[in-house]
Amino acid sequence: MAAPSEAADEMQSAPPGPRLPWRRLTSFVGLPLISLLGSLSVLPVVGSVGGAPGLAAVALGTTIGGGVATLLQWGWGFVGPTLAVGLDAGGRARLLWTSMLSRALVGAVLLPAGAALAASTGPPGYRLLTALTAVAIGMLGMSAYWFFVGTGRPGQAARYETLPRLAVQLLSAGAVLATGQLLWYPAVFLVGQILTIGYLTNRLAAVGWRRGQWAAALDALRDQRASAATDLVVATAATAPISVLAAVAPGSLAVFAACDRVQKLAQSGIQPLYNAFQGWVSEDGLGGGRRRMQLAVGTTSVAGLVAGLVVAVGLPVVDSALFGGAVQVGFQVSVLFGAAFAVWALVSAITFDVLAPSRRSGVILVSTLVGAGLALAGMSVLPRTYGAAGGGFAVLAGQVGSLVVQCAALGRGLHPRRRQHASPTA
Question: Which long-range contacts (CB under 8 A, 24 or more apart) does 287-293 make?
């Protein structure tokens, strides 16, 4: 046993543990709030000019476009930040161009397909508006947000994406008010997105058209298939439950949709946490980053638990004011959604701050598939008997299923799979 003086010397010489990156966290958390401000400025304008049919067309186009944008990311949100860490300026520029070029190839197929789907399902007389909105929102999948997370540069994220996007949203709302034509909203937003992405790429990426760069882009598409499949499952799981519940228990749709909307708004406050932590964890490597992983998961989980308690306890109290008296949410429903939200925060933290830096994309895909499968299976049965509470339990069961798969994988260790790399460019 060491003497007291020796133990004291060891304690004094021990390196301090990692400190939370508070500045980075607060910076990244503020960016979604700015984007939310832009979204809130557009919705009242669309509703006042287009009425219920126009609002429905824009909402449908936004939903389809959101799914296209998620798949268009092609897994870069999972693997990109980890790859960017450790590269020099030239390597990061080449990596960003590989990402843009590979996603452009995917977008050449996805964006027209999304537009066709939106046009075929849009309200009569508003199908062009629905299709154009789907394309404009789908372009969000070309975002370089993952790159700024990996480099730890929230200032660049604000300068090149968040603030320009806010300006474009406000400009599109002004164009709709000035002309009385809803088509100006997606048209201005789409043009603004293209200009913003083009400017960002020209300033930060190593743009080139040589054969090797095309080969790197194709390699990225092949190597990130598992992560892209995860994006596909996530996109499906985010939109399918409401459709299933509407078919099996239409009388419970209003309450479930209200809770789902509140949950997604709350998620926008947690997402910046695990996104900001992802680059911080990856900076220290797998071996030295274990303590950072623990801090990232712990901090995000505590935030998710607090927010989940607020949803569980507070939603029935403020439902009349929040939904204009049209929807009443009981505690039996809000508690299930609050619990599901808390588990979602833990699952997301493990996904982005442990599994993604460890390059365990296969585990991410399996856990997402299991969660989506449980949620959809429960959604097709439980709401018939238990209404919105059954839907909430199905959502909770899906999150718990994902967590079980992740915990089983963590029990086997965090050693990265050698074949699960993203691109020879890295």
Answer: 289/357, 290/414, 291/17, 291/18, 292/18, 293/353, 293/354, 293/357
pLDDT tens-digit profile of 187-221?
998 998 889 888 888 888 888 788 878 888 888 78
- Provide the Cα torsion 378, 234, 37, 45; round to 10°: -70
Closest to 166 in 3D by CA, of 260, 46, 67, 32? 32
Q: Select from 401, 279, 420, 403 the least CA-distant residue to 360.
A: 420
3-class secondary-structure state, position 218 = helix
**Contacting residues for 94 by C-beta, under 8 A, at least 6 apart:** 205, 206, 213, 216, 425
pLDDT in tens, 306-317: 989 988 888 888
Report H helices in 73-152: 76-84, 89-121, 127-138, 145-151
Regarding pTM above 0.90, the answer is: no
Type and span of the H or E element at 324:
none
Q: Which two tokens stand for residue 125?
A: 């007389």
**CA-closest candidate to residue 150, choices 75, 82, 224:** 82
Tokens found for residue 20: 């939370």
